[in-house]
Amino acid sequence: MGTVVLQAALLLGSERAIPTELCGEIDATCLGYAKLILGGQHEVVIGEILKSINLIGDCSIEEPQELYRRLNTQLAERFEKHPNLALLLAVALLQSFIQSNFTGPAPTQSAYQILSCSSLQKEQLHQLSVSLLSVLGQPAYDLCDDAIFLVMSLILLEQTSKQTSLFVDIPEELSTVEISAIETPAIVACAHWWRARALLTQLSLLPEPSGPHPIVASSILSSIDLVYAITKELPPHLKSELENQLGISYYLENVKCSLATNTEHLCLPSLIKVQKLTGFQFVLTGARAKRTKYQQEARSGLIILANSSPITVRDQEKDSSFNPESFALESDYLLERPIFQSIGDEPLDEQIVKRPKIDQGSGIDEEKLLPVALRQEDIPIDLRELDPNNQPALANHDNIQLLLRMQVIRQTTPAQNPMVEQELSAIVGRVLYQSGQKNWTLFSRGLWERSLIETTKAKTVERGLLQMQSLVEELGLKIKTRLLPQESEGTQVTNVERLKFVHQVPFVPRWALDAKLAEKYMSLGILKSAVEIYERLSMTCEAALCHAAAGDERTAEEMLIKRIQENPKDARAYSILGDIRQDPDLWVKSWDIGKYVNSKNALARYFYNPPASSGLKKDHSACLKHLNESLRLYPLSFDTWFFYGCVGLECGRIELAAEAFTRCVSLDATHSLAWSNLSAAFMELGKLKEAHSCLSKATSSDSPNNWRIWDNYMLVSIKLNLWPDVLLACRKLVEIRKGKVGEFSIDLPVVEKLVELLVTSEFPSEASARLTHFQSSCMEFICEILPGVVTTNSRCWKQVAKVELWRKRPWASLDCYEKEYRAMSHNPDLEFDEKVWNDSVDTCDDLVSAYESLGEMEGKHGLGSLVCKDWKYKARSTIKSLMSRGKNNWEDSDGWERLVELRNNL
Ligand SMILES: *[C@@H]1O[C@H](CO)[C@@H](O)[C@H](O)[C@H]1NC(C)=O
Ligand SMILES: *[C@@H]1O[C@H](CO)[C@@H](O)[C@H](O)[C@H]1NC(C)=O
Ligand SMILES: *[C@@H]1O[C@H](CO)[C@@H](O)[C@H](O)[C@H]1NC(C)=O
Ligand SMILES: *[C@@H]1O[C@H](CO)[C@@H](O)[C@H](O)[C@H]1NC(C)=O
Ligand SMILES: CC(=O)N[C@H]1CO[C@H](CO)[C@@H](O)[C@@H]1O
């Protein structure tokens, strides 16, 4: 039991989780090591535990696999019977690696010193370790420090969690990790959890997520059973509190993992769960704000009102066993903050409503990434009472939730949408501007995120770049820190502080900050600065892509060729060279040496759309074959599945397409086009019901105004006789398209069918009888919406007239015939175009019959009134005026004859 408490405490990074009364039960050595790790002294632990084993010795190791085998056997021999110790070592190694490359400060001893390697061995071991960490032809970042620690940690975790190694060849069938709350022992579950953390660390060393690693990590973090597997072995009196703490951590890490593996569309349920667990309340609303320095007038803006639950805050306070780093907010350009004027002085609607997506309903929908309060009265009472300029400090876990939500929004919305940028700013603002001391990890991440947002706006792009530059320096610890926490209490305190939460917020290794800055320069067209950074980071592929983007393909090619000469195993470099030269041989080579997935995708695109110079024709089956192989190795790529499905549809491989789009919507259930294409596949397979349900998903997803989707929805609904859905779609099509194509947005045959259905039902004669939903909606559509859209289409007016009559409003019905006739007879072509003449005669005929049949009915003023008292006179004068307009040209046409006949019949 004690052991599990100890491991839980390590997972939580909290010494407090080990109650003193339990310490007696725990093996003293392990307890000592755990305390050292929690106190940031990983090196001591590593040194102590490894003291007695000869890991490397004097061996000269040449091949990565040789290094793996050596480490694997040595570690297994020593730790097979001591999973607890193995886990402690693995944790120390991982945390130490993270400290070196992610959070700093630099440890006093390097990995190779601790392992007592010669300097000759050191260089070689580093290269071999980097090779081992590379995945599917993507080299791990080779300037990282202490790579061997991460390798050792991963090996130990594979051993303690009893899983097949990912260091040996990629397995044919991907084995996902199965965790059972009941059967998996707690210690194994802890090992799984740390392994997921280590795998995400490894992924952050790669240019793109790839290989089985994301799948293994997500499968570990895919179910809360991971937590239950641990807590079932805890002593009863600690169980509920630790379960709660571990649960919070689990959900946060689940989101982090989705973000890191580009499956961010799956995050919302976990975000909602963790919000409930911490009792966090927050809402986005409008406010007027003034930037201290640059603005005189307050402008409307957005603000997040947020508050942590008092219980969470109290728990956290109990935890401050060490001094948080403290620092003052001084710099103008880093810390300038808006001053909010009181919220609610303004009608909030105007500021937020611009964004079409937000529904107009009252109250707030908590099940959203960003709950919004449009009106002041929708803001929960606790939040309404907050002072917007002095909001209370949030619990750390709540700050993390905000940062994660921000990241999810950023990854799921199109870039450069000003409204989204405003929302992101509001979230970051809430993290940055709060009373009390700031947390290093979270605060520095907040500053970084804000500078990223600022660079997306023309007005603030320069300030954003300056902020990024100075943060790169400060976080890189190249110069002494000023804005961020000083290393006041010595490195121990600092590193512990900084390692807190590192597994809950997305990883940003040191060099990734620099690389992001370079990416920014590149997107702003400042290529020279971008290239400089990439070269300094020795990211050759990125630097080459920069040159290529600037049109200097020669330099790009030269750099890549040089890189390949130096690193013949860099499959990504081959593939990028292939992209620049459009040379399939290079992609094939890239696949052969490293199974680099993008090279297969490039081959697929090539065979789908071969350049004219190649003399090849579009080759669907080659294209599908390449995509199939790419997906086999990396099935988490939405884009690849989508392409696979489209090609499948195009060449009649419908089952394949259905499978592909099913995978798409399981990766992103909000993607309308994927739903719509999936329905197309089902249609082809004759599965109408499935097709219908896909389309109904498509219509409620991310592009609710895509008329083609509604059109398909209507067609399928017709086939299934689902008339209420047909009506819905038909209405929606008019709504979406009337602005562009006017009355052509109306699908007449469908309208006619709907009207036929409507009028064959009984119109409720007594006032008390209620209309069905279909009846009232159809009536509204035909009698209120259509007349605003129809201009000349007489068939359509007839339908309106029909429904008005059904509603027992003959006067309104007659009105329609008059409008129909007027629209037609005002056509100036009447005198030249026989068709118009013919049509006008027809509508005149309609109108005259309407006068005859409706004129004498009871009028709108009830008993005694008539629809049209002088209908005969009106009918006559209608005929007369049409005849006078047709006199010159149509006097001996058939139409003329018909008019004469009509007049005589009256
Ligand atoms: C920062 O994090 C540490 C570690 O959990 C905590 O003790 C401290 O209270 C936090 N600071 C604030 C202001 O929340
Ligand atoms: C790829 O092809 C293999 C063999 O034809 C097939 O079994 C597999 O289902 C295909 N994979 C996908 C994702 O379609
Ligand atoms: C599938 O989606 C693509 C991309 O949106 C589109 O071009 C194509 O027409 C769709 N195919 C079908 C059958 O709907
Ligand atoms: C108009 O109607 C007459 C018969 O009613 C027909 O012969 C003639 O072709 C029609 N003209 C046009 C242009 O449709
Ligand atoms: C490439 C890179 O940024 N590496 C850094 C890893 O962290 C150490 C210190 O912890 C730095 O010295 C390296 O520059």
UniProtKB/TrEMBL annotation:
InterPro entries annotated for this entry?
TPR-like_helical_dom_sf, TPR_rpt, TTC27/Emw1
The record's section on SUPFAM superfamilies has: TPR-like
Q: Which UniProt keywords apply?
A: Repeat, TPR repeat
User: Looking at the record's lineage, which domain of life comes first?
Assistant: Eukaryota
Q: What is this protein called?
A: LANO_0E04896g1_1
